[in-house]
Amino acid sequence: MKWHILGVGAIGGLFACRLQAGGCDVTLLSRHDGSPTRQLIMAGDPDTSHHFEQELTFGQAQDRTDAPIVHLLVCTKAWAVEDALRAITHRLSTESTVVILCNGMISAKRIAPAINGARLVWATTTAGCRRDEAGRLIPSGAGETHLGAHLPTGKAPGWFFGWEGGVPNCRWELEIRSTLLAKLAVNAVINPLTAIHRVTNGALLTAPLAEDTERLTREVQALLRAGGADQIAEALPARVTEVCSQTAKNHSSMRVDVERGRPTEIEAIAGWLLSEWVDEPPPSPFLRHLYQTIR
User: Residue 82's pLDDT is what?
Assistant: First the structure.
């Protein structure tokens, strides 16, 4: 089974290596690097090297590969998804499958023109990964990965066996939206606070930030309940504590983006909750303040 990976950051690189380990033929898509091959090194004892073919998505026509893409995994930042897909729209068709693995909620309506009739699948993962100074991929636990069709089909597609073979704790969900929403709710608490205060995830559980964490959690719970997601709201405090404890030394992606002066995914996380989730959201002054400050 052949997969193309669009967005080969730390998470994209991690999934490229995992899919290859599961027996998939993986090709990396690059905006700038015209090298025909690329090596990714996964840190371990010992390190493991993974070699991939690579194709350009931008540049002169003679430098690009325009062959059809059948299976595409998108791991870009949420704000970059549309533009990244537009560069390869001509390679997608109704015979293609596009898997979106990003933080936050992406509008299926907005990206529909860019996927050219392809089947759309959403994915979410608790796996973490970063790059060290040498460029090696440093995974932080196996995590759990969930996938599900935008238009539910009732069963996992045939290509899913490659994910099961290479991606730890991988599940196909018949209804993926609630899983995406639960992940977004946790991110809506952890990411803005760690970005504003420039702290690790674990710092949100201790003074002086524990009160802010509880306050923000209550606001997100109220938003969830306003949209009928009572079970996700009820589980949120325990889930925030669990994630902060398990990733206590980690830097959230939003914190890293803020520190490096890069665009963040605040719009796809807090912005979506405040403006897209329900027509009349309850007052959320703290979340709105964080959203406006970071954006």
Answer: 95
